[in-house]
Design a protein that fits this description.
The protein has 11 helices and 16 strands. With about 350 residues, the protein is of the alpha+beta class. Helix 3 runs antiparallel to helix 6.
C-alpha cells in the first residue's frame, strides 16, 4: 500500500492522504492459543506484547550451532560473487583473506554496489531454508497466525556495510511495499542478526503501537539515492497517532536473538558506524489461504498444514525462483548485466500507484 505513483509522463506524484483501508483487528487480535505446548513457543506475555505493541524481542532464541550454517552459506555467496567480479575484470583483488565481517566491506571499496548485488540474489540457499522452517520458529508463527503457515515470497539477506546509504532502510511499514490485497493479512517478520547489534552498528528501531489503527500511511519514494520508500515522521504522527518522543524503541538484538515484527508497525534500521558488516536476515510468514500482496509474481511456500501433520515442505520451485528477476521482467527491465546494482519492484495502481515504476540504482 504505497500512496505515490508515476503519471503517464513518468513523473512521481504523491497522494495527499493515506490509504483509506484499515484493519486494526488483523494486527491486534490474537488467534486461539495452540492446544499443546511446543518447543520455542513464546510466553503468554510475549505474545500479548506482539499484538499490543507490534513487536517483541526474544534475546536468546537460536544457538550458535543453528546460525553457523547460515554464516557459512553467506560466506559462500560472497565468495561466488567475488569470483564473478574478478573474472569479469571488475576487481583485481578478491579479498580472500578478509574475515566474515570485513570481506564485503573490502569488496565494496573495489566495486561500489557489491553489497547491493549480494542483497539482490534471489535464490534461497539450503541453510536459509532450514532456518526459515526451523521447528521452533514455526511454533512461534502458530501463536501469531494459527496452524496453517506459509513463507512469504519477500525475504532478505541484509548486507549492511558501514556508512552506506544503499543499505540503510528509512522509516516505513512493510505494507508499503505490497499491494492492497494483503492489508487484511498478518505477515509476521523475524529479523535475525548475525552479530550483536546496537545503535552504533545499525540495529532496528520500531514505533511501538504504530500498528494499532491498522492503517498504512502515505509513503514517498524514493529516500535519498535509494529505492526505499520513506514514511515521513510528521505523516506518521498525523496518521498513525503515535508520539515519537515516547514510542520509538531502539531494539539492540544480540547474536542468537530474534526481533519479531508485524507488517504494519513503522520501523527502520540505523546507520552502521562500526567497522563490520551488520549481516542479518528478515524472514516472513502468513496464512497460505490469504493474499501475499506480491502483485501475483510469486506464491508463498507452504510450511505447515493443520490437517496434515506429516506435511513436507516442497522448496523446489520457490527456492529456485528469483523474485528479483520476476520483478524486473514484470517492469520490462533487461537483467542481462549481472553487475547492475539496481533494484526493481512493482506497486499497486489501485492505491494510486502505477505498476510501471522504474528501478533505482544501488
Amino acid at each position: 500500500c504505497v500512496c505515490f505513483w508515476r503519471d503517464y509522463k513518468g513523473e512521481y506524484k504523491m497522494a495527499a492522504e493515506p490509504c483509506d483501508a484499515t484493519s486494526p483487528e488483523t494486527y491486534t487480535v490474537q488467534p486461539p492459543e495452540p492446544k499443546e505446548k511446543k518447543p520455542g513457543q513464546l510466553e503468554k506475555w510475549q505474545v500479548e506484547q506482539y499484538f499490543e505493541k507490534g513487536y517483541v524481542l526474544v534475546p536468546n532464541f537460536f544457538t550458535r550451532e543453528e546460525l553457523d550454517p547460515v554464516k557459512d552459506a553467506i560466506s559462500e555467496l560472497v565468495d561466488v560473487l567475488a569470483n564473478k567480479l574478478f573474472a569479469a575484470g571488475k576487481i583485481d583483488d578478491k579479498c580472500e583473506k578478509a574475515g566474515f565481517y570485513q570481506r564485503l566491506i573490502m569488496l565494496e571499496k573495489h566495486f561500489p554496489g557489491t553489497a547491493v548485488l549480494l542483497h539482490k540474489l534471489g535464490v534461497l540457499p539450503p541453510a536459509f531454508q532450514a532456518l526459515w522452517s526451523n521447528e521452533r520458529l514455526l511454533n512461534v508463527m502458530e501463536q501469531f497466525i494459527g496452524p496453517d503457515i506459509a513463507g512469504h515470497p519477500v525475504w532478505n539477506l541484509r548486507t549492511k556495510t558501514p556508512r552506506n546509504e544503499q543499505v540503510t532502510v528509512p522509516w516505513h511499514q512493510d505494507n508499503a511495499y505490497l499491494d492492497a490485497s494483503c492489508l487484511t493479512t498478518l505477515q509476521p517478520t523475524a529479523w535475525i542478526p548475525l552479530l550483536d547489534t546496537n545503535a552504533n552498528n545499525g540495529c532496528m528501531q520500531v514505533v511501538s503501537g504504530g500498528h494499532r489503527l491498522g492503517k498504512t500511511a502515505t509513503h514517498t519514494c524514493c529516500s535519498g539515492g535509494t529505492w526505499y520508500v520513506d514514511l515521513n515522521e510528521d505523516e506518521m504522527v498525523k496518521t498513525l497517532n503515535v508520539n515519537l518522543d515516547q514510542d520509538v524503541v531502539t531494539c539492540e538484538v544480540p547474536y542468537g536473538g530474534v526481533l519479531f515484527l508485524n507488517n504494519c508497525i513503522p520501523h527502520r534500521s540505523l546507520e552502521n558506524h562500526s567497522d563490520k558488516t551488520r549481516w542479518s536476515l528478515d524472514l516472513r510468514w502468513q496464512n497460505p489461504t490469504k493474499s501475499n500482496g506480491f502483485f501475483g509474481l510469486k506464491d508463498c511456500v507452504v510450511m505447515r498444514k493443520a490437517d496434515d501433520p506429516d506435511y513436507v515442505i516442497d522448496w523446489s520451485k520457490f527456492a529456485n525462483t528469483d523474485r528479483t528477476k520476476l520483478q524486473a521482467k514484470e517492469m520490462g527491465k533487461n537483467m542481462e548485466d549481472e553487475f547492475d546494482a539496481t533494484i526493481t519492484w512493482a506497486v499497486d495502481e489501485t492505491l494510486g500507484n502505477s505498476p510501471s515504476q522504474e528501478t533505482h540504482r544501488g
